[in-house]
């Protein structure tokens, strides 16, 4: 995906929201976009999604794109399952495959019981889960998430963290905006900040090899495949597992473990200062 000299403004005489944006991202990347409110983060994602057109420059993006907007329109003439199946069919899936993927994501986000409920009657949190599910079922080459975690409960946030990591591991490109600065800490491969209409690359927090580390001992039927900080896993003699992670990523790791399904029992947490 590539943006070259991209500018965007609303109206012929409006101020430039984005100016001379240069950005090249590779498949398998997981990239965070930062910036103050109103800085142009959402506009950038809309350009990548093909919803907005650039006033200047060129945008080269994969044909297969999926997008979770900052605000999901609830006034849609579908129930939750029918909406997901409808979008699956639009994306070229067979009816059976669209139904399979819809049911998979309804179950994964714990909303199977609302599958037949009209979207307009869903709670805000449940509606947001449907918004996220419609993007994930596409298994798109480019996944764009604009504050997609907002409104989700802790368990659903953990599921979305895992799903995003899985999409990147499968070769998808993920670009996300979130107000939590620790979101996907230890998993993101790049970060950029929008300031005064210009996009700047910013360094990711780095945990040095000799820095403090945290040891978390857990008991679980199964651990999530993708965990923040990519901790080293050490099976213990009593069946528990010790996770060693840089302390900079410990809070994100603990949040993911607390939201995991099947449940994970955290036996102990200890910081080891190198």
From TrEMBL:
PROSITE patterns, per database record: ABC_TRANSPORTER_2
Cell inner membrane as UniProt keyword: no
Lineage of the organism: Bacteria, Bacillati, Actinomycetota, Actinomycetes, Kitasatosporales
Residue intervals of the ABC transporter domain: 1-221
Superkingdom as given in the UniProt entry: Bacteria
Gene Ontology molecular function: ATP binding; ATP hydrolysis activity
Protein name: ABC transporter
Alphabetically ordered keywords of this record: ATP-binding, Nucleotide-binding, Transport
SMART domains reported in the protein's UniProt record: AAA
């Amino acid at each position: 995906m590539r943006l070259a000299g991209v500018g965007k403004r609303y109206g012929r005489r409006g101020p430039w929201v984005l100016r001379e944006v240069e950005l090249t991202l590779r498949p398998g990347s997981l990239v965070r976009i930062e910036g103050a409110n109103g800085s142009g983060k959402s506009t950038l994602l809309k350009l990548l999604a093909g919803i907005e057109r650039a006033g200047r420059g060129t945008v080269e993006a994969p044909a297969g794109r999926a997008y979770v907007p900052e605000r999901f329109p609830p006034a849609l003439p579908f129930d939750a399952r029918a909406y997901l199946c409808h979008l699956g069919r639009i994306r070229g899936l067979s009816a059976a495959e669209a139904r399979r993927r819809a049911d998979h994501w309804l179950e994964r986000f714990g909303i199977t019981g609302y599958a037949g409920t009209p979207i307009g009657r869903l709670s805000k949190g449940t509606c947001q889960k449907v918004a996220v599910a419609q993007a994930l079922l596409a298994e798109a080459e480019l996944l764009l998430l604009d504050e997609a975690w907002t409104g989700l409960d802790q368990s659903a946030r953990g599921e979305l963290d895992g799903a995003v990591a899985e999409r990147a591991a499968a070769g998808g490109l993920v670009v996300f905006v979130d107000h939590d600065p620790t979101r996907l800490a230890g998993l993101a491969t790049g970060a950029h900040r929008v300031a005064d209409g210009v996009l700047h690359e910013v360094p990711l927090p780095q945990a040095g090899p000799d820095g403090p580390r945290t040891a978390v001992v857990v008991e679980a039927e199964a651990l999530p495949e993708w965990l923040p900080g990519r901790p080293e896993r050490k099976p213990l003699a009593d069946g528990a597992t010790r996770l060693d992670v840089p302390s900079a990523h410990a809070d994100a790791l603990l949040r993911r473990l607390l939201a995991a399904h099947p449940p994970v029992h955290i036996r102990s947490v200890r910081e080891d200062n190198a």
